User: What shape does this take?
Amino acid sequence: MTRIFAAGLLLGAGLITSAFAQSSDYKLGTIDIHAPWARASVTKTGAAYLELANHGSAPDKLIAASTPIAAKAELHENKMENGVMEMRPVDGIDIAPGGTATLKPGGYHLMLMGLKEPLKAGGHFPLTLTFAKAGKIDIQVPVEAVGAMQGGSMSGHDMPGMSGKSMPGHDMSHK
Assistant: This one.
């Protein structure tokens, strides 16, 4: 029994390491792109998330995204209005000098519309990000489980230092 338990712990640690190894970092000029990820989807719509850090002395702005796996990729923001979470397209996401911008569930994100096929957990896809000053960069985005709340989170399960909370009242419809 002890051997089975120990083997389970090792397997679990390997899965956690593997999930975190999928998170890649990219650099474009003074912009760092950290931990891109997406949730698996069951429809022709999905979302991608990541963190942007500006190590320069001038502001920059994420102004566009594209991917060959979707008809359209748009920058969106979820915002609470009159007690209802609404999602709206935005013309860009500012990154202040020395600052960060986090694209995550419930906030800014990249909306992928017209997916050629639903996103599958364990897969990945190419994504091109366009910045006002830094230019364009191609990255790879790993796909997490449907309920994931962050990349490498083992499908959103509660683990120390990781978020696995759902968002009650979260309306993902376009308004």
About this structure: The helical segments are 2-21. Confidence is low (pLDDT under 50) at residues 1-23, 153-175.
